[in-house]
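Box 3.1 A note on notation
Throughout this textbook, protein chains are presented in two layers. The first layer is the amino acid sequence; the second is a token string describing backbone geometry. Keep the layers aligned when reading.
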Amino acid sequence: MSRVLHLVEHLYQGGIERLLEQLAKHTPQEEFTLYFFAYQTETLQGIGLKLREHGTPVFCYNKPKGYDFALLAQLIQTVKEHRIEVIHTHDFGPMEYAVALKLRFPRLRLVHTHHTLHDFLRYPKYVYFFQFASLFYSKVVGVSDYVTNELRRHCPMARPKLCTIYNGLDIASFETQKRAALPIGRLRLVSVARISREKNLIHLLKTCSALQKAGIDFELHHAGSGSPEEESAVRDYVHQAGLESKVFFHGFQEDIRGTLSKGDIFVSASFTEGHPVAVLEAMAAGLLCLCSDIPAHRLLSQEGILFFKLTEHDLYDKLRAIAKEPKLYEALPAKAQENVRQSFSLGRMIHEYGVVYA
């Protein structure tokens, strides 16, 4: 049995956390024991707390700014006490501590998964360190061919370690009874994302304002939270645009299926993604998915997603067309569901990580 420690900055909400929750719930216990360590977390909330309540070993630590030797000491103690054999880091931040652990415990196997690129490739010093750190890793995983190819292009020293493992989904838990036909003249919209610049929620809200001015009936339900400043900015926009009776913020949701059930149409306006779990969940749940035309969205489904350009009017034009003639779009959700079944199963993902851990 292998003992695997997942090292992350946060265990609150978002695609990474929901992915880790699925790994914790479905990884064969006779083969792997999973542990989780979130080091920018003073008190466990959200998915981290949910994991602990279900009996999964979860540790948290509130790291101050800069390199923290006290954190390293606690990680060393965790590795010793629980006889950890594999360190699995997620996104850029944890890598510097994993490398230090590898130097302290040469027997450790390091595995890295890179989920997003928006905060990484813009900074040469991060690119240089990533390549140096990759020398200590057994495998560096991109969550999509897009992520892997970008790493391959910008980080040549890491190329021998690179592979792709697509995020997987417990598809059966999202499939529901056949959904009702899309209504004529009414748009029931859903979005699920962290409230942050790269998720571009403001673009969707501006589109909602245009829908209201045009007299098109709609409602929007959003699940996800962000920093106080970012949440305040979007709430202020909703107030100033007079959208309070149309736009509803639900914050963090432990079970996203409740939010998805409130709508017929899922919208993601992100500037950048790695392999978005929220879109996979909406596809599996049978919603009509409208996604910004970016590489990570294109890789999910060519036939089952309606793509829009991040221009001023394209999303509005597509939503207006759906409201007018929804029957033209009714075949897309079934195609998207089939794409999830064929390419993004949870069992496939767990098997592929098991091979990497061995």
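The domain at 175-343 is CATH 3.40.50.2000 (Rossmann fold). The chain has a mean pLDDT of 93.
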